[in-house]
Fold each of these.
Amino acid sequence: MKHLLFSLLLVVLAFGMVNAQMATGVAPLTITGAAVGLTIEGLEATVEGVVANTNYSVFWSPEEGASMIAPVVSGAEAASDLGFIIACDPFADVALSFILPTRLLGATTIMPINFTQMVRTEDFSNYNPNLPLVINGGADGAINLMLNYNFTVPKVIEGDGWTGSVVAIASYQ
Amino acid sequence: MKKIQILAIILISAICSLQSVGQIVVRPNFIFINSPEKSSSVTVRNSSENLVEVSIDFKYGYFLSDENGNFRLETADTVENYNKSLLRYLRVYPSVLTLAPEETRTVRIYLNITQPVEQGEYWARMYITPKILQKLQVKKSAPSIEVITVSDIPIIYRSGKVNTGLVLEGISDTQESEGKIRFNTLFRKTGNGAYWGNINLKLLDKSGKVKGSFNKNISVFKQLQIPVEINLEDKLAKIDKIQIIAESKRSDIDSKKLIQAKKEEWTIPFKSED
């Protein structure tokens, strides 16, 4: 039984290694001079516990390693990360541009929103998401970006929910 | 026995967290078509765990930089020489596809060229947009923001004889502080094709020893200003000159696909601050 479990463990470990390589698009020893596929994944955000007629800021905190919301009025406020996980060739320059909403639409009301800053979580460097930019992937070929934004909750919020889209366009430079 | 079981659980959990990092993976990242060829293809893989609808669109555009070295994609709305556009000839099949998790499909690109086109290069950008076929859940009394990611692939078509070259227009805004040297380089391409290659910059002292270097892949469609920042290996090093070498080869593109231009080398005198 012990032997069987140990064998299972080795199989699982081998599968994990293959899976990890597939996930990062690395084909060992077979590709020379070919680029790793540029991948960009979006992290969608939901903010909860907001109070009517209040201005909120959501910002990614290096100390917490997560997005935080301020001010805390109801005590139930919480925001998930809004950002992008980019995988690229080591040291590749990735050109990025964004289409950002200026308001989130609800069934009966709108919620003004503006995007102030974008934080790279690897080195905490800041970028302006309102301008196109080029970021180097570094040795790991990883660029994780989190958006900071402000929004104003309408005076009447009963039963309404608001949505908007952030578009990120990525290419090798 | 118990330890092995715990280890197995930890490993399985770790593997589960090693899932795909992107919604779709597109290959190749650059498309070059040389006449008389009229077609090419890309593969699109859904690396997510969701059913994804992928739509494909084309735009005319190319990278340019402003006077501050900020990159921007010039599009049809703003460009003067719209005759470089490949848009009028481009066809794609399929233009919309649905991919199951881990499914890969090939997308064909055709150029509908029925009469010879003027010699030179024609450019376009291919925008590949995945959409998860599961609507963002709208929560009551809460804002929700969805994210749409777009892969942007340049398409270059070369008709007839195409040549290119690179000219260094100059170096400006040189600054030296805290063991770093910063400056802007301005390059301009020559010929009727864009310049794709690599630049290698070296900071040399009086004896010719390298005290810092900078390497970058570039694509110059018209002109390109590149801000350079080089850390000195020895903070007290006195730099005497900057050497720049440009070659039409890149680590991420097969050299056979690039127009081979003359290797260029420039040496610019530099005087370190005392």
Note: Confidence is low (pLDDT under 50) at residues 6-22 of chain B.
Amino acid sequence: MTNLDELLIFSGLSLLALFFARKSLMLRQLAPVLYACILLILIKMSALAYGGAIETSSFTIELLGFEMSWRFDALSWFFAVITLIAALASAVFMSGDWARYYCEQQGEKGLQRYGLLHLVLMLNVFTMLILLASGDLLSLFIGWELVSWASFWMMALSPEAKARQAAVKYLVYAMAGAMALLAAIAMIYAAGGTLQYGQLVAVLTELSKTQQIVLVLLFSTAFSIKFGLVPFHLWQAKAYAYTPGPGAAFLAAISSRVGLYAFVVVFVQLIGFAQLHSLDILHSVWLNIQNILLWIAALTVIIPTYIALQQHDAKRLLAWHGIGQGGYMLLGLMMFDSIGTAGGLMHVFNYASYQAALFLTIVAVVYRTGTSDFNKLGGLVTQMPLTFLVMLIGIIGLAGLPPMNGFVSKWMVYRSLLLNGQPLLFVAAVFGTLGTILSVYKLIHNTFLGQLRLEHQQVKEVPWSMLIPMLALSLITFITGFMPGLILPWIASIQQSIGLPVIAYDLGGIVYDKGGLDMIYVCMVMFYGFGVGAVIFYFLGGRSKRVHQYDNYAGGHFLSSKVRYHYSNNFYPGLMNLIGPWYRGSVVWLEKAVVSLVSLASNLFEHMYRSRQPVMMLAVVMVFALFAVLVKSGASI
Amino acid sequence: MSVTELLAELLFMPMIAFIVGLLMVLMMRKISARLQRRIGPPFFQPLYDIVKLYGKDTQISHGLWHDIGIVMAVGGYIGAEILLPVPGFDGIADKGGIITLSYFLMIPSLGMALGVGQCANPNGSIGISRALTAMLAYDIPFIIVVFGVAWHYQSTSLVGMIEYQQANQWGIFEMPLLAAAGLFTLQGMMGKQPFEIYIAPAEIATGPMVEMSGKYMGGLFVMQTFQFYTAGVLYASLFLGGGDNWFTFLPKIFLVVAIPMSIAFLFPRYRTEDMIRILWKWPVMVGLIGLAFVMP
């Protein structure tokens, strides 16, 4: 039995175990242990991440003449590790006091629903591993479908009507994506009679240019929908915002990144840079597939980020940022050079580490206060200082500022855009980052800073069972920012295995003779600065006196908890006066147009099908018959 | 780089920055005084001010993060000074480069924002909302300038850029449009009129400083000295060939900051949205045209 067999069988068995244990509270101890074991098996396979040979599974399935096989390479391993870390953190978080809270929240069916949540989380992990292990296009498709359904189930767990609605919306999108993927696979099969990865390139070169473009468009539609690229991003934020607690943290951290995984496998590994770059539309050199994808990525950075800026709910804000951060990954990847692709791939890991932590902090806040609405929060820093710290580290990562890991991967993306002479994309990327800074400050200010509400004055810090996973994720965010060289070998071996130029790195960051990055120095300098700053502040000058926040006045009046002045609406009035008219929701409009078009067509076909209009039916048949006769006779003449 | 060199850099670079920054504050006050036909303050006035602020009896803290915010604001700049290449000290500057430095400089702003946030004064959060919007406004042209400069020198290392300029020609002669856009941006970065609504020193009750007393205000004062110095050194490194020695370097950086300071006192103040509008229009346009010349 190979390592991969062990991994898949063990995660399958774990799923079974959770299924049988789903009605007992033993689940709480069992689930984290199971994730830890799966993680251990992955660590056993860690040779993959340091240039080891591909691990194959001994299973193969013969289906209609295809042989489906499963294997793990450096890329799969990288995504699998992120999946497991996110799942482990979520599971530990769910297993402590949060379990009791959730059961109480859900009423009499509480325990059952809680068991289901654990089960679905494991199902997500299992299907994810199957997808990552896929060895040909058919198994990729099967894994793709499994992941889609598993995440649908997770989203549909919440009993709220709105959540169900969002989940169904996601499902419609996912099905459209699956159909596109299936069509692309069918096209390849029709052209070459094979679905093996290895032969795909040969098939592609045989196709005509139009066919190639159609194929690439089908693939990219399928992947973009899962990945949440503009204009297919509308399902994501709502669906994630309504997913119950830690489940949302898992989904937001990694689930939609399978879109990027597929982009890497199909676009980078199989089709390759030269093909993408030479596939041009309308014979214009500029309008090639690579550039189009780059610009879609740039729009994905900007648009969702500035929509996030307008949200009044913490979960929604983060979910919108999740979409925006995906743009950076694709932006880096599509540059096809060593630094850019490394940045894009590394951002998957970095993003998962802080996004999971940030979602968990919101769940913690909801656990204590019952809401994630900015208008009902504020001032919690004095009550929940450690949760605040986690959120602070998370937002520094999300905004991409040193010393957290988000900075390193974004730096690599910027550096690559700079090296390749892409000024407009560079400005777009920075514009996205600046918008992120504005919006994450709104996030932290409106939950933890500012006015503390009267009803929250008794709120306490969350218990350790919830703090430990959050703090562990923050630690990852910091350590991999301080020493990016811990993650970069994994990235380098991915680049090696899929045939990209390999990045030069050391423990502190990127080695590049015309301006590299050494995070160890940068961080040490920063902490030295903070140290000196602290000495200046605490040891020089008079002693400061700590006063309560209501020992204060503004505008000539004393402030008290009765006067509510904490606001999230129009938090950046200066900016909104200027860019406010741009929020037209054109993509929402597009979605509505497609929906009404489809419903019109379906109505039409329904009428036809059910023969409610026999005359019409007859007329259509007549027209077709006439047409057929005419064509036939025309051909014979 | 030996350990003594490293220690010297860690010790002396922030100290030089502080002293030069104090002199720049003095220069600003002198310029404003001369423009208003006053004599202006005596030589040691900026230092007296800091001593006075730190020595106040009443020092109100609104919580731990109010304090840490000030530590981050001052400490972040102290770190940034060490990453700037100046004559004699450029050992660590190579480890980061211009992109790192641009993001490093946002840490003090974030610290100040956190500190003000903890004060829970509604006017404070209005000030921060304005300050962050202003950052968005001036960073767009700034980043275009950074891109053009880095592309022209084919390097993101400030040390590399200075070496190139000293071997060839100053950046300001090779990229005059980008240099002009950079100078325009500097006005916003230093928070000088007409772009000073977020600091709003004249009506302190509606800005980030609203809850800052004693050494909190002193900390922000120190931060301002660093801010002037950083702006000067950064601009001199990008466009004026950096410095061989302090005798040629100091006039350059004083000249650089003197220009925005002189312009400042001739203007009233723009609203936040007008600030964005003007900064996203003129310097961006000039910067993009400059970029088109730099990138053939």
Note: Residues 181 and 285 of chain B are 8 Å apart (CA to CA).
Amino acid sequence: DLADLAPPGGGALKRVLLLPGVLLTAALAVLALVAERSLLTPRRGLLLGGHLLPAPPSARAMWASYAGAWHPSAVGSAVDAHPSTAALALLSTVLFGKPWLAVDLLLLLGVALAGAVAYVATRRLTAHRVLRLWAAATWALLPVATGAVATGAVDLVAVQIALPALLVAAADLLRRDLTGWRRAWALGLGLALAAAFAPLLWPLFAGLVLAGALLRRSLRRVGAALVVAVVPALVLLPWSAGALRDPGRLLDGPGRQLGQAAVPASHLVLLQTGGPAQPALWVTAGLLLAGLGGLLRKDAHGVALAAWAVALVGYATAGLLQHAGHALAVALQVAAAGVLAAALVGANGVRTRLAQSSFGWRQLTAAVVAVAAAVAPAAAAGSWIARGAQAPLQRGSSAVLPAFASAELAATPGLRVLIVRPHGSGVDYELATSGGDRLGSADTPPTPAQARALDAVVADVLAARGSDAAEALSTRAVRYVALPAVPGSKRLADALDVQAGLSRRASGRTLLWRVVAPTSRLSVLRPAPAAAALRGDRGPTRELLRVAPPLLLPSGREAASTTVPSGAAGRLLVLADAASRGWRATLDGSPLEKRTAWGWAQGFVLPRAGGQLVISYNQSPRHRALVAQGLALAVVLVLAAPAARRRRGLEVVDEETET
Amino acid sequence: MRHPSLSLLAVVALLCGGVVASNAQPAAPAPRHAAATTADVVGATAICPDLRQDRNVLRTRVSAGVAVAAKGVSGKGSLMAQPLSARGAPAQLPVDRPGQVAVDLGSTLSGDALEVTARGPLAAGLELEQVTRGEGGSSRGLAGLRCEAPKTEAWFVGGSTQVGDSLTLVMANPDDTPALVDVVVWTSDGPADPRPGRGISIPGRKRAAFPLDQIAPDKEWLAVHVVVQRGRVAAAVRHARLDGHTPKGVEWVPQAQPPATTVVVPGLPMGPGRRILSVTNPGLDPTVVSFQLTTPDGQFVPSGMDALEVPAGTTLATELAPFTDKSPATVKIVSEGGPVVAGAFIYDLQEGPVREIAYAGSALPLSGPALLTDLVIDRPTESTLLLTALGASATVDVTPVAIVGRDGPLPAAKRVTVPAGRTTTLKLSTFLPPGATGRLAVEVRPAPGSAPVYAARYLREHGTRGPLTTMLDLQGAAQRVPLPAVARDPIVAVTR
């Protein structure tokens, strides 16, 4: 892409560095680094906050979490990992295996990358370099872009980088007569990569391309558009199959869900997404006016109309998403791209056109709009620098647990801690293991039924109603309940203090309670508690615990291999993970009958005799699906790959003759 | 649409139309948290921390009951009692539905605590009460206590550690693991040395008696703050006075409300003798307090009591006897500075050398039905219910409750109207025909829509050597508690 930044004939390093595109990229990079100055020191910890959870320690861990069929978030989940995990893992692998570097690069320098790509892409619309610089800077500093950085929305940053290239490629695909199908495959691949971060882009973009192809009334183009639409489904297997079954998963991006802020429609039209790091409303007004002005150009009217069609589809989608309570930023990015393209069409050659007619209201209006539009990137940059880095994005996680508790959790795989924190009138909580939550774990939630059961237990443990919630927590392998001492935590602390099944262990920055009932990821219940577990009780009663305490067994984070002593008939082996089809247990090689314990957990019926116990989660369906994904990716790569060869030869000639 | 101006108009019209349509139906963002609700209490524990029996000289009665819930709760509950030191299975109490009271429990226990656990429908409204009646020595008198749930913090206002006074903090740990407790004491001279009270350990399922003169020797007007660092305890403070061999009274110091800028001490009984209001300022800055008395005749601020200074960390003791000779009173203490704790000491005037004491604790208005589980109605004993409405007028229903094992029809309920700003008394012997004797248990419930009302019970028995007295403030056990709205959010695991 660097070659594209330079006009033809670039040679020496100095010349390259002084090229407008390179200068723009550098300027945007400096601007972003200055604006986000308070987040620059990686030694202070990992970036997190907003949508973003801390990056895993290594690319290998990230790949493992993508490839795994079982995810340990909360009570465990068999949901397919989000494709953004794979995309980020890929980027991390390229970046020396450091996921934090990938996240830092995207969030801190994504603006510069978006500007660079936009600068290259605008070459298709105008040859005027100043206009291209303006358009690229405006695109890179749109409210949605700065908002994406402040909310840690890696997906939106990726779309901001990829969308100009995708739109220009799509326009090429529709405008030109195809020399082959590979452009369609390549565009599909690009769309798949962007949609891996922001799945909503897939239906939105594919729909736009398909509509464009239908309007061209060319069967060949419709075929190409279908290729574009189908490739992401293939490349993003097996996640895409699940998303097609449950299209709601396409609507929201990856990461922690923040809930869409209520944005008035007039703000939406001005490309504001709501949330943090939005510049003043007037900043984008000039851009909108310039975009509308693009419609007045007679000679390139078709392009302007097409751009506005894209913008209106984006606006309409954003409005509908907002109405349904979903994140609308991706749709607004599409709208912004349309408006910006229309503005560029209008601005291209506006001086010569205006010079043809005598001075009058046209020139005055054009001048006002031009000034308003021209200040947009400058104003956005200025306000960003003035604001600096904004919450919720921050650097450095802070230890919630006291050292002894985190050491105990780290030493005993599978033990969990319930962390609660007051939030407004409600309470936020997480059921975490020793590593805490990492990037991607928000995308593998427990099933709704499991989540409801967990919600009920957590609400009960925070209410002084004498319920069995603490024992229900003990069945979920929760050793500690932690509450950071923040304003509003006193009420919760009082309720936790009177829970008979909890006992206060630490006060100070974090209040800590230990669950009195024995907790372990893997335990053997004697016949009486086993009967209660099979009945679907929430947890053992305190009396049962006293007369028939469970036998605690060691286990790993996911699999377990240990020896079970012999005992009475009617014993139940309970794994403190959500019951799922994939769990397997064998005792001396013979499989154990599966049951659901405590209404949610994976249980196995134990015979009288003991033996060597092996528990594992069946990974083969997931691995088969990943092989399918790999094959699909390979096929698409092959179909899209000749581009590299042709670009050097035939294709370049082709482009030159056309432009 | 071919003409540029037309297309511009069309796009502008579409944008405006979209804005108007969107504003006409504004989207309501879905809240992350559902609305908070309330839920029934389904489990409750209360502990009577100090049961003593000594043949004919000393007798402790424990009575347990369950108030009727506001709305019908179905299902089967259980009420079980277990001595703290016992290891076996708990004994089932004969109460099987709300609105029943079991009396004369724990009569075989001495030097032990009794834990009562209620589950299911019997948990909402569990009340447990103990009364110790002593005939001689330092135990001579009546000492009554509402047995509380084990918790992590308790305040007591009252008591002294001077010569002849024995002030004992009794703590029972119901859990299997040891409890670790800090005891902080304030006196009329200021805060006591905190070191001796730090890190008191109570082994699992044991109780411990801690003489408070170890923390604050030879002091009067104490305020005691029990802070549990680990575990939970049921705490109580017992004050016994002896002058040589002459009994000077015994009483449990009731648990006080935690520090607040407005504190209400309800139900100072009418009669000759001393009524000393004790206000402790546990803060680091001095404060100025004012007292307002609510009597059957009205509300007033006694002269000179509209601005009394309480230096930081000290206790102010004020004699209120001139106002309680002829009428009962409820005292409202308002602190202009930091929060304070308060209680009242009741000292009966009588012939002869023997004396008896009682304590009135600070209280909240009745939150729901409260039970008086142990009322002995006979000629020498009179139980009086004192009701106070500080603001608007309040209505209270006092309903006799069945005592398990005692058949026969229950007396009719009474409705008491407490005028605004007045204290009203109800002699509980009026539930029985004049001259009749018997055991009674009553439920005291604010009528639906009633204004807040404070309630206390004063028990006075004419003994051979003078009266025996004890006081109990009524609180109303929690029946429904707020249930927070919770939402899972992974970020709480990585940031504070």
Note: Residues 361-387 of chain A form the longest helix (27 residues).
Amino acid sequence: MSPRPSAPFGVLLVSRHNEERALLAERLLRPALATQGFEADAIRVTSAGLEPGAKRPSQPLKVALLGHGGSAGGFAPRVLDADIAAGADVVLTLTAAERDEVASRHPRVARHCFTLAEYVALADGVNPVPLSEHPEALAEARASELAPATADDSPGGAADFPDEVPADLPGWKSDAERISGLVAQLVALWIPIAPVSARVTPRYTPGRADVVVPLEALGVGIDVWCAGQGASALHRALTSAWSRCLREGGEATQAIHLVIDDDPIVRARAQAKGHVAYAHVSDAMHALASLVTVRAIDARAGELFMLHAAGLALEDGRVIAFVAPSGTGKTTLAATLGQSLGYVSDETVAVTLDGAVVPYPKPLSVVQPGTAVKDQRSPDELGLTVPTGDLRLAAVTILHRVKDGDVPAHVVEAPLFEAMVELAAQTSYLPRFDKPLATMARLLESVGGVRVVMYSDVADVPALLPQLVGEGAS
Amino acid sequence: MSGMRIQVAAADVLMRDGRALVLADGHVMLLSELSSEIVALAQEPVSVEEVASHLAAAFGAPPDGIDAMEQVRGLIAELADAGVVSVTEV
């Protein structure tokens, strides 16, 4: 179940001229990855210009770059061509005009081309997916109506850089400051979702105060080591929130090393060694949900069908998967229906090729009333039912919440191919299967195809359950 | 595009009832009937001319004023942009 060694994740930074903002961003991203515990060859960061420019960057740019710990040494400008574009997993520009030009010149990379600010804004609230699938998940989010309003990255919008590049040192310093901030956010987003092979392997000797929480996620044993001054507080929070994923016996094949400390130097040292460090327990708990999920998904790639879905089980073990994009109510549905149905997961419904469901009863991310802060709450604390019986996939449904109007909840049969387009976007590591599309079709047909649930109030959904498992008129 | 040959480059294709579902560049797409026919034909390398005559036989000639070859080239370019087919010069 060890993850395949993966090719480096290719990040291509593009600006009008290579020696300008693309160089700045490239040379800020590289050291940021190194200091945050990424292996040198795990993420390949390169840059290119849309048009030929100067051979070397300007002196003010070099000075601004040095001020943020970057260097322009060894720079050789490139002009973007089809081969360079095709080698990138994600293309990041600084201005929206540059992004639109890349997309129009190289349509094949258009879906995975973002401005840096847009990428960071879109990532907020997207399901935890492996790094290799992150650009596609963001492309889906961008194409949906869920794109956050803060991503005002239209040309000339608030999040856009001006088309003109700075002409002097203060201007380049200001650009370097802003790009450095965005790069830091980007790296922070990638830490929890990077494959284990991309991270420096922590050389770790447990300290006296360090404690371990043995977890099991999707059948993968994961030890979470807690260190730093906040180790015991993190241990308590973790043990409580992950109460249904605590491992009883069995070996861990994965380890996550978390450090909670309010000293930034302690955190920086820990990060460089491949640990994951936060100042606050709540931030660590938030990141851990992605870390554990992605580690487990990576480990089971090619073995399990993993749908981004809430899973709820009838008393006899029949599981209904409710598939929905990020931020569209999976957790709310799981928390509501889980009062009477067995709680399987609010995030990932994992199915073997013969239809058995591997439960993943992780904590639920619940917004604290009156705030924007999300808490990781244990399904036990929320009073969710423990599933019983042999868990088997019985229905796959796509949730469509109708926000406006007074639409009575109802079920619609979805044509298989159209449904598969939607489900594939919500499936991790589909290409790892032999004949992935036929395999997916077979699994879906074995449960009677795919149904769409249209609802405006989640309280109306339980009445539809007989129809979803093929027991009522549809 | 004369002298060009096209071949399916998608990682996986599933055909049913004349429609192709394809997995290309990590993305699953449902193709139109015309594009599906191109994908069905391009399991082995084929020329643009062969594609155009096959489509004309299967779907009839395009309406007056529409150049069949132009239309086929456009479709092939779109499929190539999406990573569904590769186009090589021979």
Note: The two ends of chain B are 11 Å apart (CA to CA).
